Structure formats: structure tokens, C-alpha cells
Task: inverse folding
């Protein structure tokens, strides 16, 4: 369905595009693809010369796959990912909370493990099929708006005029800053380590495991090609974790009965984690999506999923706004911001529980095991982690 690209009040020539999207990560690419599918005139720009080929996010949940289905992206991702049927929280070998996804009322009753680089390449492939592209490297230095549109100035002096500008440019969003939107929250004391490794031993291939330990948490999750993703909280992670470092982490926090043995580190990185939420998702002609609007702990693997769902909702809202219903843009923020707040709260609870002081460990374990015996608790967690709760 296409929408008129010019409102009666202004000449089409005054605009370079209807929607300018800044940032070609998962949220920006999803928004561009969804708008292109509607026939909306758009420009997508990114500061990097090529897509960042690091792995970062690795989880696509059921609700996200459902939302990507109309864009013909879900099936391509499923073909390239690993289906994890269960999510468990453990203290070493003891299962505290087992969560299965097989009972969920969806065509995707699992957690799909696939690297962010693959997710981005699949979205980009679909965008190109629809006639779109990413203009790069384009660095935005300023965004100004007036009653009819917004103008982005690039570092080479070029100016791009659009009816709407969307900041999908990450946690340090230039667009958000120039819109004057606050980003409220804080950061965790620990750093997080990310590594993709080859390992053998006591780790299943069809399960995502969150290990709690006095030393901190570690997530071990299967990836395509026989690899595993490791995410861990550490006081001060090395910039390039080696085999010995990752092995020591798993020995201290992972399975004890049958050791997980690391043979190769394919890729590794460290980052600090913030828990922040934009004070608003809209300021006039400027809108936010993805990490520009919300960031949080990777516990629960929700970040990229929330950003993609932001983009799907924003594409609908922008389509309506371009057809004359400006109020749809406020409804977008009203709908999506509370979701981000809930996701931040869940990730924060998991992170704080995982890093409970040794003296509280026994009480925490008892509480979790008692609660997890209640089917309604396990169902609620599956519903929440899968994103189906936000349908």
C-alpha cells in the first residue's frame, strides 16, 4: 500500500525523501524494509563504511519472527538459525527454572539463535529486493526541524530534507540528542564479555542456559555451525578474551559434573551495559527506535527484538501520518515505551538475581525452584521471554 509523498501544504521538490532513517542496524533496516514494502519514499543512512560484521545480538524470539513474516524475512532467518527449544536457569548443574517453548501458540515455538550479522544481512537483502539501499558512510552532525519537516546535516556539509527523521542510531544517538530528548537511567558496575566459541562437553545443543554463580552470571547458547555464544558479567573483561580466559569463566560458573571444554574463540568483545529509556519516542518530526530509545542488560536476550518490533510499529504509524493521521505517531510512543520499560525491568531482575551475594544464594535458589514448580510461573516466563506477551 503506498501513500502520497507530498502533503498539500508543501511542494514535493522541497523534500529529498519522506522518511530519513539514521542508523542501519536491525531496527533501522527493519523500518526501511517495512516502509519500502508500503511504497513509502525513504532514505537509510549509516555512519559505517560497511555493516559491522561483529556478532553482538544472537537471539530472535517468536513474536519477532511473527512480526517479520509479512516482510518475507522470518522464513529466511529460520533457515539460517538454530532452534533452541528450552531456556533454563541453573546454579552449576542444578536446574532452578526450566522454561519450555513448545506449548506456545505460535508457528515459532522456540528461541531462534542466529547472529546479528546474519539478521542484518537477511534484512538488507530483502530491502534491496524492494528497491532500497543503505547510503554509507554518512555521519549526521545536526538535525533541525520546523513545522513541515526536518533537515539533517552530514559531516561533508550535505543537507537532507525529510518530512520525518527517525533516530535508529544506537545508544549514543545524535538524532536523540538534537531532538532534546532525555535518556534516563544508569549503568551496571560490571562489564560484560561476549564470545563465540567452539566447545565440547556438558552443554546441550538445543538449550539456552543462564548460569547463576557467586562470581556472576554466564549465558551459554547454541549458534549455527556448532558454535556457542558466551555472555558473562565480569568486573573488568579483557578486550580480546582468549581460550584460557573463557575456560576459566566456564569452570567457575558453568557445568560442574561434565566440564565444558573450550577449543577455539571465534570472536570476542567486551562492553559496558546501561539500563536507560528515552523520556519520549517523539519530538515533533523526529522519532526514535531501537537502542536510541532503550538499552538494557542482555539477560533474556530481548534488546534487538524490542528494536525490531519498534520498527514494525513505527512503519505503520509513519504510513498513517503520511496519509494525514499525525496522531498515529504519538500512539507509537504510547504503545512501545511501556514495553521497553517492562523489558528493562525483566533484564534488570535477571541480572541482579544472577549476581546475588553468596549469603543470599541458597535463599534465591530455594525461591526460584519453589516458584518454578508452579506451571503458571513457567508459562508466564515463556510468554514474556518469547515476546508473545506483547502481541
Result:
Amino acid at each position: 500500500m503506498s501513500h502520497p509523498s507530498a502533503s498539500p501544504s508543501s511542494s514535493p521538490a522541497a523534500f529529498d525523501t519522506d522518511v530519513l532513517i539514521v542508523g542501519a542496524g536491525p531496527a533501522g533496516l527493519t523500518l526501511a524494509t517495512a516502509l519500502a514494502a508500503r511504497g513509502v519514499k525513504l532514505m537509510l543512512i549509516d555512519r559505517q563504511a560497511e555493516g559491522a560484521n561483529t556478532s553482538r545480538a544472537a537471539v530472535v524470539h517468536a513474536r519477532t519472527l511473527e512480526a517479520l513474516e509479512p516482510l518475507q524475512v522470518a522464513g529466511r532467518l529460520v533457515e539460517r538459525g538454530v532452534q533452541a527449544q528450552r531456556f533454563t536457569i541453573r546454579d552449576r548443574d542444578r536446574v532452578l527454572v526450566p522454561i519450555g517453548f513448545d506449548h506456545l501458540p505460535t508457528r515459532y515455538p522456540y528461541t531462534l539463535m542466529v547472529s546479528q550479522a546474519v539478521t542484518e544481512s537477511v534484512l538488507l537483502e530483502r530491502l534491496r529486493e524492494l528497491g532500497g539501499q543503505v547510503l554509507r558512510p554518512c555521519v549526521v552532525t545536526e538535525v533541525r526541524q520546523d513545522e513541515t519537516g526536518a533537515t539533517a546535516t552530514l559531516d561533508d556539509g550535505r543537507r537532507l530534507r525529510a518530512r520525518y527523521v527517525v533516530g535508529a542510531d544506537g545508544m549514543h544517538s545524535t538524532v536523540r540528542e538534537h531532538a532534546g530528548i532525555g535518556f534516563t537511567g544508569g549503568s551496571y558496575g560490571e562489564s560484560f564479555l561476549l564470545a563465540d566459541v567452539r566447545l565440547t562437553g556438558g552443554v546441550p545443543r538445543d538449550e539456552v542456559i543462564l548460569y547463576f554463580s557467586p562470581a556472576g552470571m554466564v549465558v551459554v547458547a547454541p549458534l549455527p555451525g556448532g558454535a556457542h555464544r558466551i555472555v558473562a558479567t565480569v568486573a573488568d573483561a579483557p578486550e580480546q578474551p582468549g581460550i584460557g580466559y573463557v575456560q576459566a569463566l566456564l569452570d567457575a560458573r558453568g557445568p560442574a559434573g561434565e566440564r565444558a571444554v573450550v577449543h577455539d574463540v571465534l570472536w570476542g568483545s567486551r562492553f559496558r551495559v546501561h539500563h536507560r529509556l528515552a523520556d519520549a519516542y517523539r519530538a515533533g518530526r523526529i522519532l526514535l527506535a531501537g537502542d536510541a530509545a532503550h538499552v538494557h542488560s542482555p539477560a533474556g536476550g530481548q534488546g534487538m527484538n524490542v528494536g525490531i518490533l519498534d520498527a514494525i510499529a513505527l512503519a505503520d504509524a509513519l504510513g498513517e501520518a503520511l496519509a494525514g493521521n499525525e496522531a498515529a505517531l504519538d500512539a507509537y510512543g504510547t504503545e512501545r515505551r511501556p514495553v521497553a520499560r517492562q523489558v528493562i525491568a525483566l533484564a534488570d531482575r535477571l541480572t541482579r538475581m544472577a549476581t546475588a551475594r553468596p549469603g543470599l544464594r541458597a535463599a534465591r535458589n530455594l525461591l526460584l525452584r519453589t516458584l518454578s514448580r508452579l506451571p503458571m510461573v513457567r508459562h508466564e516466563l515463556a510468554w514474556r521471554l518469547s515476546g508473545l506477551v506483547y502481541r
